[in-house]
């Protein structure tokens, strides 16, 4: 028999030293003695999911879809927005180049899709629908959104003459259970005998379209906040609003409840601006109102503050507050030491009499590192980009992609003074643009910056328009940096 060699303590120590030395050459440096860890690095996301609601119930609706992944990466990846039965509508092939599609009539369905690889980071899509005549006439624009579990919609209504729907789209393979609660000026709008259930089952890869007024029969409330949550699963949620004789549009969800909010890019020629706010917590909110215009901020005369009772919806008519200059509404706590989280949106009307048109703008999150709105038009008067800097001066880079049918990208750097709104009309547009194109904003310094795009496509003297906010595309995710731990070798 052969004898197995015995390892002496000295040999073991030498071996461990060698292994530890090798580890120090192949792993990051050890964590500092003070216990603080190295900052996480940012890596591109590997998958993105988007949900687009069904565009319209009108037989004469004309819808344009646009999709893009911003950037210039040239690696592998795929992206596909499709109908419930799997028919592809949009399939971008490479970053930086938008693709488009159209649909007509009331049969255009909701879309869901997934992007992976180099087409995932910042993948963006949007739809714009024009209805020339009828009860739902108007220009309705909305960005396709990532599915979630919690949404706030201040600005919906159950009043006579309004037909407000919440669209719920489930992109997953399991049933989603969704609850809708409505809050008016006196708090929760309670169920009555015979009221439909407010908990809805949304089947996998399907859409539910919920009319709000039957949820509170015999209760007509002009200004309501809808809270949409899921008990299981996740959905994409958007509010579609139609008002007799005024117009129609989408109301995207408000930014998460916060003590200070920004509603950027109220059109310069707005004839009516109505602010709706809701305080979801246990405390009342006293908000200071300011308007950020091209020359700085001012306080709307007679509307310096808004009191919002806890659990109740408050509103104020700001009339033609912009007075010929595009501006952004800034909401802040009257007492900076006592911020109370709120959600908010504005109802905006342009035109007058029978030539009115309706639009909505929710409170928005900052642009962050990068944000994109996919559907823009190269006509000089069609697209207005509004940029608002809060806190400090900011510099941003605005990139106009090529058109879906041709053209060369254009880039412009813009400096925005703190407390002001700069309206670019027209904004950068691709040279020789054909089709629709995307606008991408990157924050280079300062800020934060909030932004929106107003698209105007007149029809028979009606200033049909829609306002779409920009929000951080969250194209990267934090990845913790590993640190050396020789203990794993023992």
The protein's oligomeric status is single chain
Structural class: mainly beta
Shape: globular
**Terminus-to-terminus distance:** 31 Å
The number of helical runs is 1
Task: State the main characteristics.
490 residues; mainly beta; five-stranded antiparallel β-sheet; 36 strands; disordered N terminus
Strand and helix layout:
Layout: H1 9-26, E1 41-44, E2 47-52, E3 62-68, E4 77-82, E5 88-90, E6 99-104, E7 111-117, E8 124-131, E9 138-143, E10 150-156, E11 162-170, E12 176-184, E13 187-188, E14 199-202, E15 206-211, E16 224-232, E17 236-243, E18 247-251, E19 261-266, E20 270-278, E21 285-293, E22 296-298, E23 305-308, E24 313-319, E25 327-333, E26 343-350, E27 357-362, E28 370-376, E29 383-389, E30 394-400, E31 410-416, E32 421-424, E33 437-446, E34 449-456, E35 465-469, E36 476-479
Antiparallel strand pairs: 1-36, 2-7, 3-6, 3-8, 4-5, 4-7, 8-9, 10-16, 11-15, 11-17, 12-13, 12-14, 12-16, 17-18, 19-25, 20-24, 20-26, 21-22, 21-23, 21-25, 26-27, 28-33, 29-32, 29-34, 30-31, 30-33, 34-35
Summarize the structure.
The protein is mainly beta and 490 residues long. Helices cover 4% and strands 47% of the residues. The chain contains one helix and 36 strands.
Describe this structure in words.
By secondary structure, this protein is mainly beta. 4% of the residues lie in helices and 47% in strands. The protein contains 1 helix and 36 strands. It has one helix at 9-26, and strands at residues 41-44, 47-52, 62-68, 77-82, 88-90, 99-104, 111-117, 124-131, 138-143, 150-156, 162-170, 176-184, 187-188, 199-202, 206-211, 224-232, 236-243, 247-251, 261-266, 270-278, 285-293, 296-298, 305-308, 313-319, 327-333, 343-350, 357-362, 370-376, 383-389, 394-400, 410-416, 421-424, 437-446, 449-456, 465-469, 476-479. Strands 10, 12, 13, 14 and 16 form a 5-stranded antiparallel sheet that branches. Strands 19, 21, 22, 23 and 25 form a 5-stranded antiparallel sheet that branches. Strands 2-7-4-5 form a 4-stranded antiparallel sheet, with no helix packed on it. β26 and β27 (357-362) form a beta hairpin. The longest helix has 18 residues, at 9-26. The protein starts with 8 loop residues before the first helix and ends in an 11-residue tail after the last strand.
């Amino acid at each position: 028999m052969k004898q197995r060699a015995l390892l002496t303590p000295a040999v073991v120590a030498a071996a461990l030293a060698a292994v530890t030395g090798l580890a120090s050459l192949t792993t990051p440096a050890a964590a500092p003695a003070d216990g603080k860890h190295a900052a996480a690095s940012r890596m591109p996301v590997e998958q993105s999911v988007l949900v687009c609601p069904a565009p319209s119930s009108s037989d004469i609706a004309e819808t344009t879809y646009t999709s893009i992944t911003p950037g210039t990466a040239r690696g592998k990846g795929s992206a596909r927005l499709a109908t419930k039965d799997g028919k592809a509508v949009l399939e971008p092939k490479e970053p930086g180049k938008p693709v488009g599609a159209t649909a007509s009539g009331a049969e255009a369905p909701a879309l869901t899709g997934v992007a992976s690889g180099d087409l995932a980071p910042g993948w963006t899509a949007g739809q714009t629908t024009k209805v020339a005549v009828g009860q739902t006439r108007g220009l309705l624009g909305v960005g396709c959104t990532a599915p979630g579990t919690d949404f706030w919609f201040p600005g919906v209504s159950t009043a006579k003459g309004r037909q407000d729907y919440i669209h719920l789209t489930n992109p997953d393979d399991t049933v989603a259970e969704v609850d809708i609660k409505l809050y008016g000026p006196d708090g929760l709008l309670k169920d009555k005998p015979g009221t439909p259930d407010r908990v809805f089952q949304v089947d996998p890869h399907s859409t539910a379209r919920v009319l709000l007024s039957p949820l509170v029969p015999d209760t007509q409330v002009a200004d309501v906040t809808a809270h949409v949550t899921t008990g299981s699963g996740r959905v994409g949620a958007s509010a579609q609003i139609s008002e007799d004789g005024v117009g129609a549009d989408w109301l995207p969800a408000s930014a998460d409840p916060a003590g200070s909010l920004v509603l950027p890019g109220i059109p310069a020629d707005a004839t009516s601006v109505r602010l709706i706010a809701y305080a979801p917590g246990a405390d009342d909110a006293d908000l200071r109102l300011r308007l950020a215009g091209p020359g700085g901020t001012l306080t709307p005369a007679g509307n310096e503050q808004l009191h919002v009772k806890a659990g109740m919806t408050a509103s104020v008519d700001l009339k033609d507050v912009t007075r010929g200059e595009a501006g952004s509404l800034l909401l802040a706590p009257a007492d900076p030491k006592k911020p109370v989280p709120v959600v908010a949106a504005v109802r905006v009307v342009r035109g007058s009499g029978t030539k009115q048109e309706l639009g909505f703008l929710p409170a928005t999150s900052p642009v962050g590192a990068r944000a994109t709105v996919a559907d823009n038009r190269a006509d000089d008067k069609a697209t207005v980009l509004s940029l608002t800097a809060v806190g400090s001066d900011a510099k941003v880079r605005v990139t106009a992609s090529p058109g879906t049918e041709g053209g060369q990208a254009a880039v412009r750097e813009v400096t925005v003074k703190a407390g002001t709104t700069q309206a670019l009309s027209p904004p950068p547009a691709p040279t020789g643009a054909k089709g629709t194109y995307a606008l991408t904003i990157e924050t280079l310094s300062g800020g934060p910056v909030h932004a929106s795009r107003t698209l105007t496509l007149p029809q028979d003297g009606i200033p049909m328009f829609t306002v779409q906010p920009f929000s951080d595309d969250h194209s990267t995710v934090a990845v913790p940096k590993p640190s050396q731990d020789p203990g794993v070798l023992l």
